[in-house]
Structures are given as C-alpha cells and as structure tokens.
C-alpha cells in the first residue's frame, strides 16, 4: 500500500530467556500470537481505528553482539479498510497508544505462558520449575514490557528494505569479522548503549554456538503477513489500493517446470514418442 506505515518493535523481557532456550518453537509462536492478537484487538476498536490494517511481523532473535534478544519487528499501515470497504485513517499520530500495546502484549503472552505451565506443556530450564516460572510470570506482569512505537513513515518501502537486508544478512556478516588467531575470533558491532563501534573476542567454538543458536527453525517462516497483507484477502487489499489510486495487486503465479526448462533452453523429449515433454528419472539401484 502506498500509504504511511509504522515500524514498531515488541520485545520480551530477558528474564524469560531460559524459557526461550528450552521451548523455542512454542515461545516464538506465542510471540507472534501475542503481537498479532494485540494489533487485531486494537484495530477492531472503533475508538482507535475500527478497520483492518495490513501488517507484517518479522522475528529477530539476536542483539548486535550476537546475544539472545528475541523481538518482533512490525511494519503496519497507518489506517485500514472498514467492513464497508472504506479506507479509514486514525486520529492519532501513532495509531495505537503505546501503553495499551505494552499492557496487551504482556498480558496475552503471560496468559499463554501460565496456561502452558498448567498443562505441563513446557520443558523447564535446570534452575526453574513450575513454581519458579509462575512466580516469574507474576513478577513480569507488574513491569512495563518494551514496545517501541514511532510516528509513521511516508511509506513502508524503506523499512521493508531494511528488514529484508537484516533478515537476509542474519545475525552477523563478513564485514564484522576482524581477525582469527590462536583459536580466537574478533568481531565488531555497534553498541546500542554507547552508540560506538565495539569489539568482542571469543573462542571459535563459542562463536560457532553464538551464531548457530540464531538459525531459523525448520519449517517456521520468520516473516508473516496479517490483515489486508495476508495472501487470502487480496480482494480487500485491492479495494484499499483502488482508493489510493494504485493498480490492483495480482498474485504471482509460479511457473511450471516445463516453462522453467524452456527458459533455460532445455527440452526433455520422451524417447518413445519423440513428442511429449516429460521428466526422466534413473531407476534406483
């Protein structure tokens, strides 16, 4: 959508890292659910928007120094499509109140955690059991969680490109690597605290572990689409695009294997009929 977009960031407290390490698949799914349910609830509320926005959520698990820092980036339209098909813009500069987003995000995640604990559905860290985790959940329910929410950008293209580069590059890139010597590796990063470029030296085995723990889980997409950006609601997206004088969005069709081979100048002809295109496979031995 060629409209203003917000870039928001939802972060879980580091006190939950033990739970994250032993239940990563469950944990990251609950992060997506807590954020998406928060945004859906506020979007539906007439006092805030009363319409369906489009947004994507991207999971990042690392800090700049390869630390464990699970958080979700959100790129969301500044407005949405009402049930009647009209594009509605919010009255606020920041579409939803930050304090409300913090409270809802916290509440939804902790509610899921307590339910999972009650169902014995979690693997416990060595130093934490049900009682300790319940006490921790109660403690975290009384503090503010980190939700960064800035005013909207003129469009979402710049933020989308930033997220794409960030996701494609992974937790570290080659330019950050400075030296490898005596089984030690030195890398650089820009510190959030000092705003300066700093160096860190670790052993090669530790560095390998630091990188590998940020690999995405198999079969679990790290970028997910919601609202009018979800692939199943293209019709509603095009209603909004028409009001912004944008061309209709057409879902890309994947080419057939025949078309791909033809594009490469390869034609596989059946040796029997000499006409039909087919894939030939050698028999297993």
From TrEMBL:
Keywords: Plasmid. Residues 54-230 form the Transposase IS801/IS1294 domain. It comes from the Bacteria. The keyword Translocase does not apply. Transmembrane segments: none annotated. GO terms for biological process: DNA transposition. GO terms for molecular function: DNA binding; transposase activity. PANTHER family: ISSOD25 TRANSPOSASE TNPA_ISSOD25 (PTHR37023:SF1), TRANSPOSASE (PTHR37023). This is Mobile element protein. The lineage of its organism: Bacteria, Pseudomonadati, Pseudomonadota, Gammaproteobacteria, Enterobacterales.
